[in-house]
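Subject: for your reference before the review

Hello V.,

The reviewers asked for a structural picture of the protein, and I figured it would be easier to keep everything in one thread rather than splitting it across files. Below is the amino acid sequence we used in the manuscript, unchanged from the supplementary table.
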Amino acid sequence: MSEPIPFTKMHGCGNDYVYVDGFHHAVADPVAMAKAVSDRRFGVGSDGLILILPSDKADVRMRMWNADGSEAEMCGNGIRCVAKLAYERGLAPKRARLTAETGAGVLTLELGVKDGRVESVTVDMGIPRLERAEVPMRGPPGRVVNEEIRAGDRTFRVTAVSMGNPHCVTFVDDVKAFPVATYGPLLENHASFPRRTNVEFVEVRSRGEVVQRTWERGAGETWACGTGAAAVCVAGVLTGRTDRDVLIHLLGGDLRLSWPEGKGVRKTGPAVVVFEGQWPGSA
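And here is what came back from the structure prediction:
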């Protein structure tokens, strides 16, 4: 059996992952490890596995696998935790601005540091990709804004956004009571989305405040989704429901989003260490 693998369990607004320092520890089969550690009864319990790796394009590289073993491009909550670990563990330069290579490109992170600890991270999530083919979503060219889509026994109006990974945003009247577990998987696996999609169900409280629940591709309902929050900010603007600055309430906490005209989406939120441990090296 190979050596145990040290890990750190972290969360951003309840969106929790197991993190491994890939600078110093190798994971032979990340797909198998992601499935095993994510199990909330027989594993650590998480939404997936994230490796922090060296990069020739940025300060660090982030790779992530969902709880079902599928690899995802990026996670807005996960990358905040990557920044915290990279800074505090000396994996990246000790400066308040870091860069991270992801499947969605190289992103810039601004760190709120106090007494040597990262308390919050602001991520430039990049410019949203809005053309249907960029999401990707099947259908005629153009943007998908308030477009009708049938899932199960009901019709939704959806707005499709890519933040480096696909999102389908739909607005509902009462998100707390909405049957996310019923319609989330139907939309995630809808034939319109060739790579499946993340799904955000959103209730608007005012032009500057919304409540979001997320059905994540490959993970089910999660307590928060950073790229999903960015997509919700964009969808709110595109549909005329919200302003460009919005406070988003998620099951695990709050995120502050802004989408300056002509620029990338910016997201600010916490990154929290839960505990550390060692995973048996057979994975």
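For the response letter, the relevant points are probably these. The chain has a mean pLDDT of 96. The longest strand covers residues 105-114.

Happy to draft the paragraph if you're swamped.

O.
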